[in-house]
Design a protein that fits this description.
By secondary structure, the protein is α/β, with parallel strands linked by helices. It starts with a helix and ends in an 8-residue tail after the last helix. The protein is built from nine helices and six strands; from the N terminus they run H-E-H-H-E-H-E-H-E-H-H-H-E-E-H.
């Protein structure tokens, strides 16, 4: 049995060695300040194992907690997680009920880390009352020593975010007594940015999507204008630290042009 155990351990040893080597080679000065992640592939991951969809969602939630730990280790300050879109709200009531319960448990896990701050993005009115209340309590918490700021995009849609920003801008202008013509004559990019869900935060430097899909699905449509994108074949529950390090290495090797 001892002789058989050595070959079985070898791939794990090589994997660990490669991961450590990759981590050491990463220049911390090139690490993004803000990363957006589209956590895609939970249902397909479950289907691979003929498991219920809820198991995939739970595995995806567990991966979120693990991923945020990696971000804290690497000094990444802002993470935006695309967890549930407005389109996802059209899924079956049974699946949504299970998913909402898993998201609620994820909130509890994040609440257990005193160094994480959480900001909600999306339409809380689309969420069940118990989940909206739990999210409100979590976002109200102010860590004394913040290690990472997490934007939770739940019930989120990129087009809706821009519409909400414009609506809020117009309400402000109306309260100030400005006419619509005056607003139109002075409207700028900065005016819209002041009312986005991520107001006051840096735009994402890097956006990662798992599961092999190569589209944005409305995620951070305004903020990602000059972001770098990385598409990974791994399904989200199977996303490994080494996959993350490869994404960061790829990002570090790019020359950002910001539209120039």
């Amino acid at each position: 049995m001892r002789l058989l155990s050595r070959p079985l351990r070898m791939p794990h040893l090589l994997y660990d060695y490669y991961e450590r080597r990759l981590a050491r080679s990463l220049d911390r000065g090139t690490v993004p300040r803000h990363i957006g992640v589209m956590v895609d592939g939970n249902r397909r991951w479950a289907k691979q194992f003929n498991a219920p969809t809820s198991r995939g969602h739970q595995a995806g939630a567990d991966k979120i907690v693990e991923f945020l730990g990696w971000c804290q280790e690497l000094g990444i300050k802002v993470v935006t997680l695309y967890m549930l879109s407005t389109d996802n709200m059209n899924r079956s009531s049974d699946e949504l009920d299970e998913l909402m319960g898993i998201i609620a448990n994820t909130f509890d896990l994040l609440d257990a880390d005193a160094n994480i701050s959480v900001h909600a993005m999306g339409a809380p009115e689309l969420l069940p009352d118990y989940l909206a209340e739990r999210l409100s309590r979590l976002t109200a918490r102010a860590p004394e020593h913040e290690s990472v700021h997490v934007n939770m995009a739940i019930g989120y849609g990129g087009r809706r975010e821009i519409v909400d920003a414009v609506r809020e801008l117009l309400h402000e202008a109306d309260a100030e007594g400005r006419t619509m013509g005056e607003v139109a004559d002075t409207l700028s990019v900065e005016d819209i940015s002041r009312f986005l869900y991520t107001r006051g935060q840096p735009d994402p430097d890097l956006v990662i999507r798992t599961s092999g899909e190569q589209r944005l699905s409305g995620f951070l449509m305004w903020q990602s204008a000059y972001s770098e994108f990385y598409f990974c074949e791994a399904l989200w529950p199977a996303f490994r630290r080494i996959d993350f390090l490869r994404a960061l290495r790829d990002y570090a090797g790019r020359s950002r042009r910001f539209g120039t």
